[in-house]
Design goal:
Strand order of the largest sheet: 1-4-5-8-9-10-11-12
Structural class: alpha/beta
Strand content: 15-25%
Bound molecules: ligand PBG
Number of strands: 12
Order of helices and strands: HHEEEHEHEEEHEHEHHEHEHHEH
Largest sheet: 8 strands, parallel, barrel
């Protein structure tokens, strides 16, 4: 008998040899229940050129969209408001009287009560400055003054039926302020999905085009995080968990898998991740060129985010992914 080299006894390929075996050892499960579809609400329905396949929806088309999502088993939808330039001002006043947005919340809950409605709390869609917070005459983004408006916004969203409030503004202390307002006003079961580690990313461009919400001056680096940092995300996570966030979000997702992984290891709260507009548009561009297989590339991009540790994924591919599996 020839001596057997021990190394040759270990053959990982045995566990890859056919579909049944591969399925049995698959570690990461992705289902529609992990996915959130972001939707843009507007007075008129219009295609978004930088995000092929995504549209701004008026209420009639929102209802149609919800009917087509209804039976896919998604976790929910995240609603974003597109506001006409003439309705924006320095105080972002429309944030507290965006009737169309409130109607959109009702429309989803009336049409598909099982879909979770996640509302966006930040001032940028309403601000003539295009910033997430109020801006001082010298151009400073005002933290504490902004918190008061955010809390009122959150209360209005809760009153109109939001299941989860998602503050995307990155002001300090906003989770606590919103949690406190909800608790004191009988909305103790309304949850908070906090944009905990939201980076000052260059991948939000198509979204800002979708909402016409790009900052008029400067950038968002005094409130969104430096993409060179990772320990800072842990600090934000500790704060948001302490302040009462139910989910901690990392945004963007695909380029920030290390952050998702580290935050999930802390075991403070389940992690949400946002595969943002720029990630969507990059993939769609290559798919349209025929350089990537649509369903396979999308699936891999989402599995990777789950594997890193995200429980929930906000993705413009949610509907498409769920339909490809059903
Ligand atoms: C702003 C907000 C942004 C996104 C969600 N909420 C853009 C920004 O911070 O400028 C980006 C989402 C995406 O790119 O898909 N509150």
């Amino acid at each position: 008998m020839q001596p057997i080299d021990a190394m040759k006894l270990i053959r990982p390929r045995r566990l890859r040899k056919n579909h049944a075996v591969r399925q049995s050892v698959q570690e990461t499960l992705l289902t529609a229940a992990h996915l959130v579809q972001p939707l843009f609400i507007s007075s008129t329905t219009e295609n978004i050129s930088s995000m092929p396949g995504q549209t701004r929806l008026n209420l009639t088309d929102l209802k149609k969209k919800i009917l087509s999502l209804k039976d896919l088993g998604l976790f929910g939808v995240a609603l974003f408001s597109h506001i006409h330039e003439k309705h924006k001002d320095a105080k972002a006043s429309m944030a507290l009287k965006d009737e169309l947005y409130f109607e959109a919340i009702h429309c989803v809950k009336d049409t598909a009560p099982e879909l979770q409605v996640i509302t966006d709390v930040a001032l940028d869609p309403y601000s003539s400055e295009g910033h997430d917070g109020l801006v001082s005459p010298t151009g400073e983004i005002l933290n504490d003054e902004t918190l008061e408006v955010l809390a009122q916004m959150a209360l209005l969203h809760a009153k109109h039926g939001a299941d989860f409030i998602a503050p995307s503004d990155m002001m300090d202390g906003r989770v606590f302020t919103i949690r406190q307002a909800l608790e004191m006003n009988a909305y103790k079961n309304t949850g908070i999905i906090s944009y905990t580690a939201k980076y000052a990313s260059n991948f939000y461009g198509p979204f800002r085009e979708a909402l016409d919400s790009a900052p008029k001056k400067g950038d968002k680096k005094s409130y969104q995080m430096d993409f060179a940092n990772s320990n800072e995300a842990l600090r934000e996570a500790l704060l948001d968990a302490d302040e009462g966030a139910d989910y901690l979000m990392v945004k963007p997702a695909g380029l920030y898998l290390d952050i998702i992984y580290r935050l999930n290891q802390m075991n403070l709260a389940p992690i949400a991740a946002y595969q943002v507009s720029g990630e969507y548009s990059c993939l769609m561009a290559a798919i349209h060129q025929g350089w990537l297989d649509q369903d396979k590339a999308i699936n891999e991009s989402l599995i990777a985010i789950r594997r890193a540790g995200a429980s929930l994924i906000f993705t413009y591919f949610a509907e498409q992914w769920a339909k490809s599996k059903s």
